[in-house]
Structure prediction request, 357 residues.
Amino acid sequence: MQLYNNLSNNERKNLLKEAGKDRLTISFYKYAKIGNPEIFRNHLFLFWNSIDVLGRIYVAHEGINAQLSVPADNFDEFKNHLDSIIFLKDVRLNIAIEQDIFSFLKLKVKVRKKIVSDGLDEGVFDVTDIGTHVNADEFNQLVEDQDTVLVDMRNHYESEIGHFKNAITPDVDTFRDSLDLIEEQLKEHKKTKKLVMYCTGGIRCEKASAYYKHKGFKKVYQLEGGIINYARQVKSQGLENKFIGKNFVFDERRSEKISDDIIANCHQCGAPADVHVNCANEACHLLFIQCEACKIEMDSCCSSNCKEINSLPYQQQKLLRKGQGNSNDIFKKGRTNNITTFNKNELLVKLSKAPLW
Ligand SMILES: [Zn+2]
Ligand SMILES: [Zn+2]
Prediction:
């Protein structure tokens, strides 16, 4: 099974398809004191690898943050093993709304300094003094309250395709930036307003709520289990769904649909669209929103320049890439000046005139 990690994405996809087994996409996190993350990492890898678990997992002295794809048949074994680890016994598992056997194609368990790159200095505030957890029902009531300020703790490219109605969605690239921005915006209201926050699965709010309490906010709440868990509760309990659009997720699925609304626009022509793609030029890989028409016009690329490079033979592309590090700008979509934009009407006219083959 170790060899599996050496296969290409397509080879892995084929293996998963041939296996024909249902898989569950699951995420969980836990802040805990882990003395030796390397040993813990090896322990997890060996067992999960043996029961065909895939995913991306970060382990640090401060805890674990895991996103996984588990064969449905092996779920009990997976769960029993988690329960055998003291600090993971009965940990809340966020189970994805939309399942996809291809959500993860490899098993990567990495030792990191932190389980979320929050940009915060260690030891400056008490990370265990967190806000009050609320469930979906309590959350729905809280956000109706006149004294509530609802804040999205995710980054701009996540809230762009879906968020709670009336939420503040900071226009930021990083978690650290959004912490400062929110504090500045709400500094007059630290004692009076109810600060209610949410993120994808809850992990970012654990740190954020402790940070805001440290900064003097008195009434701090966080949505337990984040949007993923909220969507499940809304369905199972027949509650009103206050989330519009899609929930951005960090696996091959990219997002899961929570409501039918399309709240974002194509970054190239402005038409309603909420499908994130990576620019087909491997040297660019920019993450951005592209509609079907632009996809055709641009050969799945973000710019004319990328389109040109992408049309070159693969070996030539490789030569061009030589010496250039991997771009770290992949999430900066919509902020780059390189992206090629269109007037929607001109594009439609152009496409209608284009020969079909
Ligand atoms: Zn478009
Ligand atoms: Zn590009």
Remarks:
- The mean pLDDT is 88.
- The first helix runs from residue 9 to 19.
- The radius of gyration is 22 Å.
